[in-house]
Each structure stands twice: as C-alpha cells, then as structure tokens.
Amino acid sequence: MDLNSKWYHLMLEIANKAAKIPGVKWLLKPLYYPIKKRVERSQREKFLQNGLQVLQRFDECMEQNGIEYTLAYGTLLGAVREKGFIKHDFDIDVYVWGKQYSEQMVSALNAAGFELIHDFKVEDGSIGREETYKCDGVAIDVFYVYDDGGKYPYCCDFTTIDGIPTFNQCMQMHGRVLARKTELPITEQRIKSPFETIELYIPATACEVLEFLYGKNYMIPDPNYDPNTPNEHIRIWSEKKAYYREM
C-alpha cells in the first residue's frame, strides 16, 4: 500500500486511536505495530532528509511576508536543549499570533510549496486555530496564540470525543471535536537562536514556556515522557465548539 495514500494514513489513525482503548490494543498488535513502524520509519527518513531545509523555507516565507512566528513545542525544546531537532521528532511545530492569521498568509505558504492538509477552529477561528501544512514530506503544525485578557495567552490543540478513532468520524457523529486550551507565559517578543546550521526565532520567554509544557526538568531528556500527564495549564475547553476540516 502507498505510504502517502489517504487510506493508508486513515488506517493508521484508526489503529492509533483504537490501540488506546483498554483490551483492544493486543488484538490490533499484528496489524498496528507493523503499520506504525513502517510509517514512522518513512516519516523519519523524510524528516531527516528534508526537515531543516523545509524549516528554513518556512522561515524565509514568513520573513518575506512580514509574519512573525517562533518555534513551538518539541521543535522549541530541540532548539533550546539540543540546538536542533530532538531525536524522536517527526514534524515541525511553530507559534503564530492569531491576529496575524489571514488568507494571504495561507496563499503565501501555498505559493512557497506548503500545502494545507487540514485545520481546526474554535468557533469561527477568531479565538482558536491550528493548521497543518506539508512540504517535501515534512509536516508543519502552526499553533495560533491568543490573548483574551487572562493571566496568560493561550493556544489550542485538538482531540476527539469519547475516544472516537478519527477526527472525520468525530465530525460526522457529533458535528464537532474537542479543543484543549494551553496557557503559555509567552509575549510577542522573540529572539534568534542557533538551530543546526542556521538561526531561527524562539520566544524571548522560551525557558518559561518549556517549563509550563514539560516541567522544571525539561533540559533533561526523558524517554518515558507522557504527553498526557496532567498539567494545570492545559484543560479541555468544553464550553466552546471546535471543528475539523480536511483539505
């Protein structure tokens, strides 16, 4: 089966979701692990081959169009701790302030070779948004940051309702998905940081952001790190409706 086909990745997504259901994972073992390993190996190969040049192309596109961004999540952790990608990275994460979102930005990225794969919105997108682009086999997740006058700005990521296997199925069954609201001690100020052979932008408060996300020991690699560990700065935004759209 073609590793780039939508059916292949739909099957993997279903297997990933279903494998989290108690009592189901062992039933899927003969199917789930070979697929998972094959896709991860393919993604890792593409990432190692193209990741840095894709990130540099993204940086150039944003600079040329006057859009400020910073590295985010695992890519930010890699910049601060490793001065490059962390070993188990398969994609690129960036922050963009929500007020900078525009259709012109999407068009500029598309013209630079970044295809919009899917997006998420909270309500109409004015209070929460996430997009995934793909270029040369490498995915870039854009997390939009908002300031609603609370103690901290925030961004959103998204999950399905009641363990439904895919976002498309969740939309079909419930007409929405769930948003997770993550507080961040972030400002619009940014600084350049060494990253592999180039320099890229990180938040001026990068250390505080990473401590919020990963705890005080974020500079120490943790092979047992669980992204689902309870975090006082992350909560399900159940009072708001969120939506998923696949391109």
Task: Characterise this structure.
The protein has 247 residues and is α+β, with helices and mostly antiparallel strands. It is 36% helix and 27% strand. The chain contains six helices and eleven strands. The chain has helices at 6-18, 25-64, 73-81, 103-111, 167-174, 206-214, and strands at residues 69-71, 91-97, 115-122, 129-135, 138-146, 154-159, 178-183, 190-195, 198-203, 234-236, 242-246. The strands form two sheets. Strands 1, 2, 3, 4, 5, 6, 7, 10 and 11 form a nine-stranded mixed sheet that branches. It has a two-stranded antiparallel sheet with strand order 8-9. A hairpin with a 6-residue loop joins β3 and β4. α1 (6-18) crosses α2 (25-64) and α3 crosses α6 (206-214). The longest helix has 40 residues, at 25-64. 29% of the residues are buried. Mean pLDDT is 88; it is low at 1-5.
